[in-house]
Structure formats: C-alpha cells, structure tokens
C-alpha cells in the first residue's frame, strides 16, 4: 500500500511517475500505524507518512483475476469479425478525437475498418495514419509508397498471390496496426484483398481439437526476414503461433507467416504433431476468410495481432501506400479516446 501512495511527495502529479525509491527509502518492516476514513477517502499512516487513497481504489486493488489484464488491453470480442465492410468517415476522423475514438473502437471490436473519403494521395493517407500515433519505422522505411518493383526483397513487392498471414513475425514485437491504401491500379486486374479472423479461427480450432490448439500455443516457431542485403532480422526469442496473456489466459496475438517461418523447436520424433496441428489451423482459416477489392479513397486498416491478410495475384501496375503503428501505441490511443484519461489512469494504478 505504501509503495502506491499518490501524494505529491511520492507521486509526480504531471509525469505520473513514482518519486520514491521504494527499496532504498522505505523500511523493510513497515506496517500500518493508523487508519482514518474521511468520506470516500482512506488515510493510512505508516513510517511517519500519511498516505491517502480513494476507497474504491483500495477495494479494486484487492481483486484478483482478469480485471487488470482487461484494463491493460481494453476490451475486445473475438466473435465480432464481420463479413461485410466496417466503415468510418475520413472527415470525422480528421476533425475530432471523438472520430478517432469511433475509428479505433471499430478496429478493436471487429479487427479492421475502412475509411471513406480519404484523398488518394500519400500525403493525406500519412496524416490519417498519424491521427492514431507515430508511424513505425522498419527496414521498409516508415510510411510506404510502393509498387511491385522488388524495391524491397519481399513478396509484397511482386504481383504474386500471397496467402493468409500476419506481418513482422520476425520482430520480437510485431506491428500492431497495418494500413493499405490503393492509390491506383492501371493496365490490369486482380489483386483482391483477403482478411482472416485469427481469433475466430483459434476458437474454432480449440473447439474442434484442443490438443492441436495446445500445440500451436506452446511450440516455439523461428521466423526471419533475410531477403534484403545485409539483414537477417530475427526475434530475440522464439514464439508460438498463438500467444496468450499470462495473467488472464486470453488469446492476445496470432503469429502466422509460413513465408517467413524457419525452424520448429521440437525433437524430430515430435515434429509431425506440429505439422498436423498447423494443417488443421490452415484449413480452419479458410472458413474465416473475407475477400474485398481495395479501391482509391478508401484505406483499409487492421489489427495485425488478430487479423491475417493476403491477396490474389494481379496484372498491371498497382500503387499502394501505408504503414505500421505499434500495438502499444494503438491500445493507448484507443483507451484514451474511448474511456478517458481519468479511467485509464485509475486502471494503471491498479496494475
């Protein structure tokens, strides 16, 4: 309790950071000397210091279970992925934080959203993405403006079909949001976009074959990005396909990219178990596909921790732009615009 005192001596009111060196300044044998109640506040005296806490905060601090994980990540519903477009208007997003909150709530709930009426220019699209947060810089650059010219050694820069996958599995922290805006497509056809709900697929697999779900949740899979000269990006540790919150046990991240997959961390005699589980996963994904053609003035953004994406092959010249947003930045902006600073900071103080 003393460690979480919120008086100005112990907690900076503007930076929201602790000001005391808990393990150096507070006595090891600290204990409560006195408790006084004043309305909704409780004053606790210890080690010559009087700390003050809201009664609700003390009650909530005693709770165990999922509540803190929910507060940390916000809310989501793994069954709400839609097979129809989920849309918000560009003007509303650009003009107000309320519009941003509405946009992010759609993404958080459904896994993706389109923005109608965005000018088909890289400049307008970049400003739209920055309404959420800073654009993540990677070996592809920050904001992309690209065609199928192999400027980067990746299948995204070809005309080939790409199967359902999540991006940046080769990063320790995969990107959180991903945006694509088709600026133009001339002299050809095809290139239809695929979205797949990873959370719904995982739930279906768990219901069908709990053992396969368990294998994909436990067996580490190596990933890499090695196509560009001088680079071989690999995460600092291996991760399974399905990753869960250690506190709540809820599925929070899907990492599935057969193109960037390397070795599987299993003894040879057990390897077949993973391949059988992965085959069932891939077949389940096909039941959760959603296809739609991208078009100018309608950027698509999706949650890369939940929604897998792909495309059909195409002819002609397509020009796209877009970029990544970090998952932590996405969740921060989502919570601030939907719950408000007071509620968010209450959750922070609870853990």
Structure, described:
- It is a single chain.
- The chain has 351 residues and is an alpha+beta fold.
- It folds into 2 domains: 2-62, NE0471 N-terminal domain-like (2-Layer Sandwich), CATH 3.30.2020.30; 77-339, Clavaminate synthase-like (Double-stranded beta-helix, 4-Layer Sandwich), CATH 3.60.130.10.
- It is built from 11 helices and 17 strands.
- It has helices at 22-25, 55-61, 67-73, 90-95, 97-110, 122-129, 198-208, 210-218, 271-285, 327-339, 341-349; strands at residues 32-38, 41-46, 49-54, 87-89, 112-116, 144-146, 162-165, 177-186, 193-197, 221-223, 242-244, 251-254, 261-264, 289-292, 300-303, 307-311, 317-325.
- The strands form 5 sheets. A 6-stranded mixed sheet has the order 4-5-15-8-17-6.
- A hairpin with a 2-residue loop joins strand 2 (41-46) and strand 3 (49-54).
- Helix 5 (97-110) crosses helix 10.
- The longest helix is centred in the last third of the chain and has 15 residues, at 271-285.
- The two termini are 12 Å apart.
- The relative contact order is 0.19.
- The model has no long low-confidence stretch (mean pLDDT 90).
Structural class by helix and strand composition: alpha+beta
Query: What is the number of domains?
Result: 2
* Percent of sequence in beta strands: 15-25%
Strand order of the largest sheet: 4-5-15-8-17-6
Basic shape: globular
Helix content: 25-40%
Order of helices and strands: HEEEHHEHHEHEEEEHHEEEEHEEEEHH
End-to-end distance: 12 Å
CATH superfamily of the largest domain: Clavaminate synthase-like
Please state the average pLDDT score: 90
CATH topology of the largest domain: Double-stranded beta-helix
- Level-1 CATH class name of the largest domain: Alpha Beta
Corresponding CATH architecture of the largest domain: 4-Layer Sandwich
Biggest sheet statistics: 6 strands, mixed
Beta strands, count: 17
Q: How would you classify the quaternary structure?
A: single chain
DSSP helix count? 11
Radius of gyration: 24 Å
Uncertain segments are: none
């Amino acid at each position: 309790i003393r460690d979480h005192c919120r008086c100005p001596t112990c907690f900076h009111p503007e930076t929201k950071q602790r000001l005391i060196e808990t393990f150096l300044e507070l006595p090891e044998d600290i204990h409560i000397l006195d408790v006084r109640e004043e309305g909704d506040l409780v004053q606790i005296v210890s080690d010559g210091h009087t700390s003050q806490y809201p009664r609700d905060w003390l009650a909530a601090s005693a709770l165990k279970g999922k509540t803190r994980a929910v507060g940390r990540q916000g809310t989501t519903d793994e069954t709400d992925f839609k097979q129809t477009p989920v849309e918000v208007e560009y003007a509303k997003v650009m003009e107000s934080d309320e519009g941003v909150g509405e946009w992010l709530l759609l993404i958080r709930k459904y896994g993706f959203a389109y923005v109608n009426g965005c000018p088909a220019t890289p400049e307008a699209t970049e400003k739209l993405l920055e309404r959420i947060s800073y654009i993540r810089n990677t070996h592809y650059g920050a904001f992309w403006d690209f065609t199928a010219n192999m400027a980067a050694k990746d299948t995204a820069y070809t005309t080939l079909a790409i199967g359902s996958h999540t991006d940046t599995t080769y990063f320790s922290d995969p990107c959180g949001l991903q945006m694509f805006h088709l600026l133009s497509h001339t002299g050809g056809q095809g290139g239809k976009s695929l979205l797949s709900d990873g959370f719904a697929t995982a739930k279906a697999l768990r219901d069908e074959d709990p053992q396969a779900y368990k294998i994909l949740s436990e067996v580490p899979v190596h990933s890499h990005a090695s196509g560009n000269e001088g680079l071989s990006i690999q995460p600092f540790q291996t991760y399974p396909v399905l990753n869960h919150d250690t506190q709540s046990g809820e599925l929070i991240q899907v990492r599935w990219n057969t193109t960037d997959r390397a070795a599987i961390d299993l003894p040879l005699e057990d390897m077949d178990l993973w391949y059988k589980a992965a085959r069932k996963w891939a077949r389940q994904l096909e039941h959760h596909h959603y296809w739609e053609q991208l078009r100018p003035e309608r950027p698509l953004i999706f949650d890369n921790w939940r929604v897998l994406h792909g495309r059909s092959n195409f002819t002609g010249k397509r020009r796209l732009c877009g970029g990544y947003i970090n998952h932590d930045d996405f969740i921060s902006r989502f919570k601030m615009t939907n719950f408000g600073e007071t509620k968010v900071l209450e959750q922070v103080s609870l853990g």
